[in-house]
Amino acid sequence: MSRKRTNDDDSSGNSSKRQKPEGNEMSLQTKRRFQTNNDFRRFDRQFPNFKEPDEIGHFSMDISRNFYCDKSRLRYYIPPSNASNVHFDLRKGYSTMKRIDDDEWKPEFLNSILTWINLNRDKIPSSSDSQGNRYVE
Questions:
Q1: C-alpha gyration radius of the chain
Q2: C-alpha distances out from residue 62 to 48, 69, 115, Å
Q3: Integer distance in angstroms from the first to the last C-alpha of the chain?
Q4: Per-residue pLDDT tens for 1-55?
Q5: Can you give the pLDDT at residue 107?
Q6: Among 27, 30, 96, 38, which residue's Cα sits nearest to residue 63?
Q7: What is the pLDDT of residue 114?
Q8: Res 112: pLDDT
Q9: Burial, 60: exposed, middle or buried (Cβ in 10 Å; 0-12, 13-18, 19+)?
């Protein structure tokens, strides 16, 4: 005769009753675990006004991952006129692709964007403190 497993069964199927706290201890433990702040009025404000982002600059990188502070490598995506009749050849360009060995590869992180920021600090809106030091907000 088989018996159904319950949440109190361990992985071997043996029943192991959990010890329940006695008296008022259960409700205190439950309150601590599931305590929430139901004061939603603190979020009852006017929604912030976000505006369309402004382009303040651009940079490019070539196939060798060299940084250029211009739009020289900028390319545009032009969607096909008939999206249901698109045939991509994923082999096109595969034979001429530049392969990067594991020992050549290095993570770039945010180096390119930080280089652009460093070269174009005057284009970034910022505030200044009493000593004239500028900080990006």
A1: 30
A2: 39, 11, 15
A3: 70
A4: 555 555 554 455 554 455 555 555 556 665 566 666 677 777 788 888 888 888 8
A5: 80
A6: 96
A7: 93
A8: 92
A9: middle
Structure tokens at 8: 């109190």
DSSP readout, 25-81?
HHHHHHHHHH-----GGGG-SPPP---PPPP----EE-TT--EESSSTT-------S
* φ/ψ (deg, to 5) at 74: -70, 135
As a whole number of angstroms, the distance between CA 105 and CA 64 comes to: 11
What 8-state DSSP symbol labels residue 115?
H
> Residue 119: enclosing H or E segment and its boundaries?
helix 111-119
Taking CA 53 as the corner, what is the angle to CA 137 and CA 128, rounded to the nearest 5 degrees? Answer: 20
pLDDT digits (tens, 9 = 90+) for 69-119: 999 998 888 888 998 888 889 899 888 887 877 777 778 889 999 999 999
pLDDT at 5: 55
Number of neighbouring beta carbons within 10 Å of residue 42:
7
C-alpha–C-alpha distance, residues 34 and 26, integer Å: 12
H or E element in which residue 127 lies: strand 126-128
